[in-house]
């Protein structure tokens, strides 16, 4: 559940993610803007950056906006072909990974899944969350989910032979699923909730500082390179 204080940080973190994305994916374009006399119109055509609707979609998804729920669970959105699913999925994956979640993005096509991953791969690397994000086909995700519960062939054989009860199998599945869940159980007492909210807010602030540092380093490096070329 998001608190009001935590929601205030979401647009800032998202801006940092997209700032780094634009710098990494469109870095060379800044040089062409310089050659064009710094025209803002020309810059809009050159720089790879999110469209307004993509930003609004992400903010809504993360609970920022009137009438939205305050939880990340049970979010369902329809984005038509050509409206930028790759950008939305990549930024959402980066945000969730920065918050400590393991992210799985699935697609019906291996080609599209690989293409979308490579679009944001460098962003994931810069933020140090590459190991928390995985793109794959839906079938691969289903196979991995099944495999995480144990060797299905052996478990089924044991169950048919009567060596493994259905209750035991169900318990094993539950333990495997909960052990890998990124969600944390919150105690009901108010003192604990306040402490967790304060800790969470502080954690998000540290992520914001990290984003600012990484974006700043990337921008400074780009600026230094441009100065060497034009000065």
Automatic annotation (TrEMBL):
Q: Which SUPFAM superfamilies match?
A: P-loop containing nucleoside triphosphate hydrolases (SSF52540)
List each copy of the SecA DEAD-like N-terminal domain by range. Answer: 46-129
Task: Report any one BP term from Gene Ontology.
Answer: protein import
- This protein's source sits in the domain of life called Eukaryota
A cellular-component GO term for this protein = membrane
Transmembrane segments annotated in the record for this chain? none
A molecular function annotated in GO for this UniProt entry is:
ATP binding
Under what name is this protein listed? SecA DEAD-like N-terminal domain-containing protein
Q: Which organism is it from?
A: Skeletonema marinoi
Lineage of the source organism? Eukaryota, Sar, Stramenopiles, Ochrophyta, Bacillariophyta
């Amino acid at each position: 559940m998001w608190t009001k204080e935590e929601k205030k940080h979401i647009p800032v973190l998202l801006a940092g993610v997209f700032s780094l994305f634009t710098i990494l994916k469109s870095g060379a374009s800044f040089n062409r803007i310089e050659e064009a006399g710094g025209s803002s119109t020309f810059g809009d055509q050159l720089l790879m950056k999110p469209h307004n609707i993509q930003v609004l979609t992400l903010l809504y998804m993360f609970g920022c906006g009137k009438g939205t729920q305050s939880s990340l669970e049970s979010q369902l959105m329809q984005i038509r072909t050509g409206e930028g699913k790759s950008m939305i999925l990549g930024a959402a994956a980066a945000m969730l990974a920065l918050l400590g979640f393991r992210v799985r993005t699935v697609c019906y096509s291996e080609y599209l899944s690989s293409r979308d991953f490579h679009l944001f791969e460098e962003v994931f690397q810069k933020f140090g969350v590459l190991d928390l994000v995985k793109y794959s086909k839906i079938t691969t995700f289903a196979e991995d989910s099944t495999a995480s519960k144990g060797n299905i062939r052996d478990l089924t054989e044991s169950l048919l032979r009567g060596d493994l009860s259905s209750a035991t199998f169900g318990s094993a599945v539950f333990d495997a699923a909960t052990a890998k869940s990124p969600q944390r159980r919150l105690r009901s007492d108010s003192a604990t909730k306040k402490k967790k909210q304060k800790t969470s807010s502080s954690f998000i602030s540290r992520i914001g500082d990290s984003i600012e540092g990484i974006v700043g380093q990337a921008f400074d490096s780009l600026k230094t390179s441009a100065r060497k070329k034009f000065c």
